[in-house]
Amino acid sequence: MQKIRCQWCEKDDLYRKYHDEEWGKPVYDDETIFEFLVLESFQAGLSWYTILKKRENFRKAFDDFKYKKIAKYSGEKVAELMQNEGIIRNRLKILATINNAQKFQQVQNEFGSFSKYIWNFVDGKPIINQPKSLKDVPATTEISDALAKDLKKRGFKFLGSTVVYAHMQATGMVCDHLVDCHCKK
Fold first, then answer.
1. Catalytic residue chosen out of the listed positions 18, 22, 28, 49
2. Is 119 a catalytic residue?
3. Cβ–Cβ < 8 Å for 101, 68
4. What phi, psi does 178 have (nearest 5°)?
5. Which of 2, 12, 31, 151 is the least buried, fewest Cβ under 10 Å from its Cβ?
């Protein structure tokens, strides 16, 4: 019997694997949360599929998403990244990633972990929605608006409400699997 999935992931096996194994599963470790922040910020204006196909290239280019290392990237490293055809070569997004790595550590220092900070916006537990179709899934919510506004106030870049809501979905802060999806069970 074939698994029923959210329709958006039926493009190929890469997308199905991501949907089945990662999307919507709660993430509490700062390293993985930072990886998704980087990937989601690069996704702004592009499809998630484009980013997912380049994920391993991003991992290599950005030192396994080690935010402490990224926070110290030099102009030389930015120039190197701008030549890397395996990633999205957008100077503003690359600079935002370095900036966000620095801000990420400031939030860790203030809250003990970035996870504590971000999960506080959903009272520490996932919001379980019951969408029947993709049109029932919002692009933003009041919570993503508030989180994006707070991140902006803290100096983060390329993390508007739509990007933040996608991050919340990816890291399981929100479960938007459709009601008939096998992952909802």
1. 18
2. no
3. yes
4. -65, 155
5. 2
Active site residue 18: yes
Please tell me the pTM assigned to this model.
Answer: 0.95
Whether 48 is catalytic is yes
Cα 14 to Cα 18, 80, 158, 178: the distances in Å are 6, 28, 25, 19
Tokens of 20: 């089945």
For residue 109, give every residue at least 6 positions away whose Cβ sits within 8 Å of its Cβ, in sequence order, or none: none
Which residues, 6 or more positions from 99, have their beta carbon under 8 angstroms from its beta carbon? 155, 156, 157
Cβ proximity of 65 and 34 under 8 Å: yes
143-171 confidence digits (pLDDT tens) = 999 999 999 999 999 999 999 999 999 99
Please tell me the predicted confidence (pLDDT) of residue 165.
Answer: 97
Catalytic residue among 15, 23, 35, 40, which? 40
pLDDT tens digits, 29-39: 999 999 999 99
pLDDT classification of 45: cutoffs 50, 70, 90: confident
Q: Which of the residues 15, 23, 48, 165 is marked catalytic?
A: 48
